[in-house]
Amino acid sequence: VPSAAPTPPPAAELPPPPAPVVEPPFMDAAPMVAAPAPIAAVAPAFRDQTAVDESLKLILQAAQKTAETTITDARARSEEIIAEARYRASEITRDSDRKAFEAASRIQTEIVNLEDQLVQRRGELESLHRSVETERMRVRNIAQDLLRSVGDDTASGLRSAKVIQLEPAPVVDLTSDTRTQVAHDG
């Protein structure tokens, strides 16, 4: 696997360049190292570090503001969701209350109708009872009138009252054999 070329580090992490080497005019002489950079040259590096620090501070502040905005937006959205859930819950409660009220109203209407029917049936029963009592009184009056008239006949001695037997009559077989015998007996 070929290795990728290393990526250069960011500019803020690079070390300062080495001091330049000055060659002497003669070849035999040893190379000389240049004098250290003046303070003015060090100041830009220091300024770069300050700029990096300020840049990091600005990036952190922007990230913090973005995070705060995200949190604020999330809170607002969660409050919207909660409000919507509460509204939906109240809507469901209203709907179930309405259905319960309608069911109770239907039951109440049925109860009222049954009570009306009961009152009507009681009235019919009372009317029927009065009719039966009236008919009983009429039959009693007829029976008393009949007894008085029979009692008057018995008292005058014209004839005595016959007792009527309320037994069933014998069963007569009307088949062909019996008819001929009945005809001869009769």
Describe the structure.
The chain has helices at residues 39-156, 176-185, and strands spanning 21-22, 32-33. It has a two-stranded antiparallel ribbon with strand order 1-2. With 186 residues, the protein is an all-alpha fold. It has 2 helices and 2 strands; from the N terminus they run ββαα.
Quickly describe the structure.
With 186 residues, the protein is mostly helical. It contains 2 helices and 2 strands; from the N terminus they run ββαα.
SSE-based structural type: mainly alpha
Oligomeric state of the chains? single chain
In round numbers, the mean pLDDT is: 77
Unreliably modeled segments: 39-44
Shape descriptor:
rod-shaped
Order of strands, widest sheet? 1-2
DSSP strand count: 2
Tally of DSSP helical segments = 2
The major beta sheet can be summarized as: 2 strands, antiparallel
* Helix share bin: 55-70%
| Cα-atom radius of gyration | 64 Å
Helix-strand sequence: EEHH
Strand content: under 5%
In whole angstroms, the N-to-C terminal distance is 143 Å
